[in-house]
Amino acid sequence: MHALDMIGCFGDSEPYTPLRGEFYINSKFVQHLLDEGHLRKTRRARKGALAIYFEKGVITHIGCVAKGGRIVSKWGGCGNLYKHRPREVPMMYGNRIRYHEPISGDEAVQLFEKFRGD
């Protein structure tokens, strides 16, 4: 369901997130995807896009845009998915949201293998 075949939750308490059940990634990898231009920015939220939250320029959270512009994301370590409005998140996730086109799970795995040096 999530655009990188992952559930986005980045933070000090849970820095790594499963990628297709094969790897664990963190916000450094997502930042790498942004820096290298693999995640193309969109002008508005549309179904299937990634919603990436920032606090002071640092990625804090990521979700997937669902029908009606709501965001599907995981909060904390309990594993529950929530469907919420873009600004209905804990304050620690920051007040800047950028939307990006997703990449396929296969492409994400290939890029991750290259990123970690395989």
How would you describe this protein?
The protein is built from 2 helices and 7 strands; from the N terminus they run ββαβββββα. The radius of gyration is 13 Å and the shape is globular. Mean pLDDT is 78; it is low at 1-16. It has 118 residues and is of the alpha+beta class. It has helices at residues 27-35, 105-116, and strands at 17-19, 23-25, 50-55, 58-65, 71-74, 81-84, 96-100. The chain has one domain. A hairpin with a 6-residue loop joins β5 (71-74) and β6.
Topology (SSEs and partners):
Elements: E1 17-19, E2 23-25, H1 27-35, E3 50-55, E4 58-65, E5 71-74, E6 81-84, E7 96-100, H2 105-116
Question: What attributes does this structure have?
Answer:
28% strand; alpha+beta; 118 residues; disordered N terminus; 2 helices; five-stranded antiparallel β-sheet
* Biggest sheet statistics: 5 strands, antiparallel
In one word, what is the shape? globular
How many separate structural domains? 1
Order of helices and strands: EEHEEEEEH
What is the CA–CA distance across the termini?
26 Å
Annotation, overall tally of beta strands = 7
**Which class of secondary structure composition applies to the elements?**
alpha+beta
Q: How are the strands of the largest sheet arranged? A: 6-5-4-3-7
What is the share of helical residues?
Answer: 10-25%
Determine the strand fraction and express it as a percent band.
25-35%
Q: What's the total helix number?
A: 2
Low-confidence segments, ≥5 residues, pLDDT <50?
1-16
